[in-house]
Amino acid sequence: AHWIDSILATVNCENTASGWGGAILPPSDLSPRDWAVYFTRYSAFMPPISAGTVAEIAGDNAVYPKAALDNYWKDSAQGFWETLFHHELRQHGETLYLSPAIEVRLGETKNSWHFCQSRFRHGYHYGSTRPETPWLTRLIRICAAPVLMPFLVLRIGRRIVKHRPDWLLLYIFSLPWLVCFLSSWSLGEVKGYLRPQQRETPTTLSQI
Q: Which residues are paired to 98 by β-bridges?
C-alpha cells in the first residue's frame, strides 16, 4: 500500500512523464553473493537518489501509463525489456522520472547458476537488439570484449565510492561473485553482437 501511495503521489506531482521509478534497496542481512547480485543489477539505482528527469529507471520498480505501453512497447509477446522501451520513449520526446519516494527492497537470490544464466540471456538480448549499432560498431565492441567485464566491475566500484562509500567493503567482499555474474553478462552481450536480431518499427496508436 505504501508503494502504491508513493507512486500515485509522484504521478500526481509529475504527470507529464511517461514512466516513474525509484530506488532499489538491498535485502537485509546479505551474503557476499547477494550483494553481488544487487550491485550487478541495481548499482545505478542505489539510494540515495535525487528526484528528476532521467534517461533510465529500473523496470523492477516502475510504472507507466497505458498509452505509453500501447504506443511504444513493441514485441510485447517477447516480454518486457525496459532498455528498448525506454529508448523508444526518448526517441519520441517522452520523459522518465526518478523519485526517492518510490522504493522497493530486493529479495534473496536462491540459485546462483540460474542468475548467471539469466545474466547471459539478458546480455545476449541487449547486445542483439541494441539500437543504432551498425556492424562496424559491433565489430569494435566484439574486439573490446576482453575489457568489458573489468570495465563493468570498475564502473560499479566508482558508483559505490561516489554514492555509498559505506558499502565499499561489501563491494570488495562480493568481487568474486561480481566477476562471475558480470562475465556471464559480457559473454551474452558479445554473442548478441555476433547474432543481431532484426528490430521492427513500433506501431503507434496514431497509425492504427
A: 21, 52
